[in-house]
Amino acid sequence: MKVRTSVFATLILMSEVIGIALFLRGFFPVPIKSSLASKNSLSDLPAEPLSGSSPNTTRLPHPLFKRVVIMLVDALRDDFLFGPNGGTFMPYTRHVVERSSSYSFVAKARPPTVTMPRIKALTTGSIPGFIDVVMNLNSPALLEDNLIWQAKTAEKRIIFYGDDTWVRLFPKHFMEYDGTTSFFVSDYTEVDNNVTRHLDSTLKRDDWDILILHYLGLDHIGHISGPYSSLIQPKLMEMDDVLKKIHGALISKEAEGSLPYLLVLCGDHGMSETGSHGGSSEPEVNTPLVLISPAFKRKVGMEKPGVIEQVDLAPTLALGLGLPISQNSVGRVIPGVFQESSLRDQLRFLHLNGHQLNCLLKDSMPSYEKEAGFEQYRVAEKAHGNWMKLYFEGNTSEVLSNMGKKVLKQYLEALAALSSALSKQLGKYDMYSMIAGMVFVFQLLMILLLAMPEALSADAAVDLPVASALLSLPFYLLCLLLASVHVLVCTSATSSCYYCTLSWGLVFVVVAFSSAMFCILISMAVRRLSLGLKYNGKSPLKTNVSEWSLSELDVLLLAGTVGHTLSLAASSFIEEEHQTWYFLLNTLCLAMFQDVCRKYFREKSTSKDEEDCLLPSKDCWNSALPQPDASSEKWLALATPIFTLVCCRLLRSINQTGVQWAHLPDVGHWLNSSEHRTVLSLLTVFCLVLTYLLVQRRCSWVSKVALAFGLVGVYSYRAAVGNVIFPWQHSSRTMSKGTVEARFVYVFVLGILFSGTKDLLRSQIITADAKLKSRGLWEIYSGLVLLASLLFRAHNLPVLCCCLLIQTLISQFIWKKLHYDAAQITIMHYWFGQAFFYFQGNSNNIATIDISVGFVGLESYVEAPAIFLTALSTYAGPLLWTCHLVCYLSSERHRSPVSVGHGCYCLALLRSVPAAVYIVLVTVLRYHLFIWSVFSPKLLYESMHLLLTAGRP
Fold first, then answer.
1. Mind spelling out the 3-state secondary structure of 173-233?
2. Any idea where the GPI ethanolamine phosphate transferase 2 C-terminal domain is (predicted)?
């Protein structure tokens, strides 16, 4: 059965979605949830254990605190308070930590370190998954059991000011609230002033029990200029003054004989060395947690802060306020908070925490009895019952005290084991679903590889032996075998498998489809093998696309692409993927240099026609073309690969990326320092001028004028935000936020895009003018370049400039002169695009995404343009190389006849089907290899943030 290439590509994509979805369903662990639909209540709490008789008391410890103030400073790193500069940044808080009645800890946040999952962790005690990264953009109401709901049910009066994520998560939970948007990162003053302005009046009132303050300014400064910005210290001192005001007000209102207050200072996540967050580096996961209350012992000096999990705060606050612990909490109470309570109350607190963890363990793990924590809790509970028996008998000897301390220790060990077992549950994968999805995708990969020559031929059709496969005996035998395997796995699996929960009808469809694909794959492989043997035996003079000869460059491109994909099976290669692309790019430049040398330094005895036909990447028809100025062409062609090597080496120095060396200083840090602003200004001017000279050549005069004004606006914007300086600018002059200047550039971007789109539509609808079409594409490309120059940081403009310069030189002196075919040029664009993604400073860590560019030219948060601008800036490198590929192939197609022999299938494709189909096929091939390589034991233990690249291919 023959199908068109476009239909074949669509079927492959649709089938791939099924395989990838099944794989990811097994790869993403199911969140730990209690099986109970209702939430915990005080009536559900267990009684105190008592040995020798039935429990005779359901006594609950009295609440420890009357009022709780939670001051959450977004992106507060632990070294901002506990580091050597803590006394300078936050002097009052540091004094409280060292000398006052307080406990201080380093609270470790679990990845993903973004705000909404961290708020969930703080209020539920559970560990959110990576799917919450996507939900962070539009946080739905939190329905699972949580501290805020428990407090509201207990008629606690809650007031909230700050990040409106809380308002979306907990609608109708707050007695009074004032939310501020967290996404407009350009604002780091008003966003905090809107919180602080309520403090004076709120602290004087007595009609609240819980006050929550979420400050965003520090996080926004980190996104704008990083953790070492001059803005960091003033912001931290502002937060220190806020804490001082709150602490003083709580002390002044403390009444004799009443329950004490509790002041909590914490961060939801930290801040990376570049000022972002989302990954699992130490600066991102380590946050300070300071608990201040007169109920604690007064310190006599600075103590090293202990290390706890961030989720431990939820059960601690719940028990401290006399509330039930949330059902899905995996945290354990902080023992120091209850040290001043009686021994009976301390044991009761730990018993309640252990009971809740034990219930969650039973709900989430079928083999819970084999867990060490389960047995340890039973032993501790039994010892607790024996202690209670002696306690009720009135025993007050030292034996009772020692026994109670022993039980306390047993409880703490049991809680640690239970919490650890539940946390490890997040690292367990549904292996059956993963293997099923992986096999499914691998079959698609092999079919795609075997059908590629036919799909890219002049006929643009693929012959799929569907009928013969469905009517063959192996198809029915394979269906029976796979169905038997499915029954065997689902009946013997100790843990739940998603694939086993599907209906039998749906499973049969999947089994039949997979069996059919396998039979089709075997038929196509046999047919391809027979064709290869036929051509090898006859050695025809003229071959078609069924014979696929490879040059040295082809071997390099294919081996490099497949080798890179296979390297993704190792976590270290994912962390440092940029090193792989840098190596491949350097090797490619050397290969191009070798081809240039072969062209211009071949032995003189070789005739011109023979020379052209023997070139590894050149077609015979080009020998008849005139060669202008051979001498200068030769030296420019020789210099282009070397110049590309030099540019790539310099670009590597601008931004440190990856994991291991991301913290090291680079040229970007040097340029962004205030001492070198003049150097950065001169470099910016040079790059903008060179950008204009490289881009304007193929544009109309209207677009040239618009491009020139737009680039002037780019420099004006950078000067307005303080990155560069004008020669006549005075330092004392108050600068704007660059909103007007950015919108000025947007006008010219839209104008250039409109002009290019108009020419493109005219060439397709009114007149079939290839030159007009090519000009329209190049004008759209120039509009994207102008937009990228506005969004790029000033120190990254050399990356954009070098991108354009390398494109110009290679296309002029390498691809044209050596006559590389469309397949080779496409893969080269792919390589360069991936390398320039890392040249920008990006990595496979979502913490490297620059959110601040989403608000260039905006005065408030608007979701659609913010997401678009952020994505465009992040993927500017691959996007510009992809657009250049389309423009280049379109402009060259009408100048050259279709080549025959090696590589002719690609140019034939451009005449028979849209170029987008070819790009889809190449992308699908790459994704197949990626998903296949992901399944590796070495990769599974790695943190998930290394695999979430914000949608990057």
1. CCCEEEEECCCCCCCCCHHHHHHHCCHHHHHHCCCCCEEEEEECHHHHHHHHHCCCCCCHH
2. 545-942
Indicate the Cα dihedral angle 300, 305, 306, 307, nearest 10°.
170
CA angle at residue 93 from 91 to 99, to 5 degrees? 95
Q: Is the peptide bond before 112 cis (omega within 30 degrees of 0)?
A: yes
Query: What SS3 string covers 568-614?
Result: CCCHHHHHCHHHHHHHHHHHHHHHHHHHHHHHHCCCCCCCHHHHHHH
List pLDDT tens digits, range 316-348: 999 999 899 988 889 999 988 888 888 888 898
- Whether 600 and 814 have beta carbons less than 8 Å apart is answered as no
Say what the pLDDT of residue 293 is. Answer: 92
Q: Which residues contact 90 (CB under 8 A, 6 or more apart)?
A: 80, 81, 236, 237, 239, 240, 243
Computed over its alpha carbons, how large is the radius of gyration of the chain?
33
26: tokens are 């097994």
Contact, 802 vs 715, CB < 8 A?
no
Task: Classify domain 72-302+311-323 at the CATH superfamily level.
Answer: Alkaline Phosphatase, subunit A (3.40.720.10)
The total number of residues shown for the chain amounts to 953
CA distances from 385 to 52, 54, 219, 352, 369 (A): 8, 10, 49, 14, 21
Nearest 5 degrees, angle CA 233-CA 100-CA 408? 115
Of residues 453 and 34, more confidence is placed in 453
- Residue 511, pLDDT > 50, answer yes
Establish how many alpha carbons lie within 13 A of residue 365's alpha carbon, considering only the half-sphere containing its beta carbon.
23
Domain extents in the chain: 2-28+430-535, 72-302+311-323, 333-428, 552-601+631-917
Lowest-confidence region among 428-442, 447-461, 487-501, 896-910: 896-910
Give the model's pLDDT for residue 414: 92
Supply the pTM of this predicted model.
0.73
pLDDT category at 185 given cuts 50, 70, 90 is low
Pairing of strands 67-73, 210-215: parallel
